[in-house]
Amino acid sequence: MSRNLLLISTSTTHGTGYLEHAEQEVRSLLEGKSSVLFIPYARPGGISHKDYTAKAREAFEQWGISVTGVHEYDDPVKAVNEAEAVFIGGGNTFVLLRNLYASKLIKPLQERVQKGMPYMGTSAGTNVAGKTIGTTNDMPIVHAKTFDALQLVPFNINPHYLDPIEGSTHMGETRETRIAEFHHHNRQPVVGLREGSMLRVKGDKIELLGPLTARIFLQSQKPMEFKPGDDIAFLMEAY
């Protein structure tokens, strides 16, 4: 597979504008491209497709990239098939996945990515790039007919990964606990992506970008920390 992916934990970090923290990586992904097809189906906070697309358009136009929303086309499949690159934004992962299936975009997206089309996701858009959406943090506010996602990479991702707060008296479950529960029923690795972190995938190579380490979980093994520059290519062939 000629993957060319940028999978970002979040669209906005503290003190930065929309996608500003990932500008260098976005520019690299889209080098030589002049347009992006934006898929706004996740609708964070219930924002309209139109307003969400306008937000993305404002960011990309600063970099000389034009943006159109998939909802602006009569035929979303045709829009994906003709796109130079695709960006799926964050919001609710269940809403996003349901709409991807309803619009019949799963297979077209998979086929275009297999042929090298740049794919970029943030948050929910990163979740759906994995094997399933079983490690999303989102509430299941709608019913998706399956948890099977785009499977652009053979592992799951947990964007917005949070570490336990040292000294906290809160006795609730941690993200690590929830991922351990996931691994009682599922084999694929899970990458805990902290805010400001992202994965750059080229073919079968994968690189952790950003200022922070990532926490990687394998079934029946202790969680592992990897820093930017470490070799994490095993994720592409773990199962």
UniProtKB/TrEMBL annotation:
NCBIfam families: PRK05282.1. Keywords: Dipeptidase, Hydrolase, Protease, Serine protease. It comes from the Bacteria. This is Dipeptidase PepE. Its EC number is 3.4.13.21. It holds the Pfam family Peptidase_S51. InterPro entries: Class_I_gatase-like, Peptidase_S51. The keyword Protease applies. The keyword Hydrolase applies. It comes from Pontibacter locisalis.
